[in-house]
Amino acid sequence: MMRNYYYLVAGLPELFMEQDRKDFSVNALKLEVKEQVHPSDYRLVEFLHLTYDNDNFLNKLLDRGLEFNELGSFEKSIFDDLDENINILPQYMQDFYYKHTGKKRSADEPDEEDDEPHDIFEAEKLPEVRFLENFYDLAINQKNSFLRYWFSFIRDFNNVLTALNCRRMGVDPALHLVGNNWLTEILAKSQAADFGLKRELDYIDRLIQATDIPDILERERKLDLIKWEMSEELTTWDYFNINFILGFFVRAGIVHRWLKLDAKTGEELFKRLFDDLRASYNLAEKF
């Protein structure tokens, strides 16, 4: 049975509004939550934010030259010297690091023989795709229901988005899709405008419409709103437990992103999150 955090959830609107929009800090909110939830529940919050650590890890390992994402759980100094700090990072990162670099975990470790790929589809996938496959395999097998459903949604959402972009560029999507399941098979083969997925994915029409928007910021806003609403849907009947808090952090991350990208949209989403928090608490009190 999940633990309930009545006082924490009741205080989230005030805690949220105490933040200065210009210096809005998800990390500060994480610290507040860490002090008030069970350690095992806070580990779920940290797992949710591993996506940012994944970006920082790949950024350094593949020398992408992108800006460090501060929303992860590991400091920049850890990634600045991967050789020295790799054993501090999660196991799936360690496994990928050693396989990608060909380095040994220890001096007396025997050389590994590379397994022959099962098929060309698997053999030609990009390193970052292979890495994400390892991560999502871990994520969708988590015991927590929100994490399972959320990461399954994000994987599928991003795969559809990838397939649409590949179609526009005339590129075979198969090698860029994360995972190998019924959805990736359809996305790789279907010629239908919506890949014949209207019944399976109720958001696909909105996703396709969003990708047709020429303005980059407006397109990204529409895509993030789909994620926002899914995080709400997944916690419809969760009022005071860790799932509610996880959904809150998904939306707080979106607010953080937009306060940096576009002040007007960021303000709107900031207010929306506050209003949603207050409305959720008021609804919960009725029950």
TrEMBL record:
InterPro entries: DUF2764 (IPR024492). It holds the Pfam family DUF2764. It comes from the Bacteria. This is DUF2764 family protein.
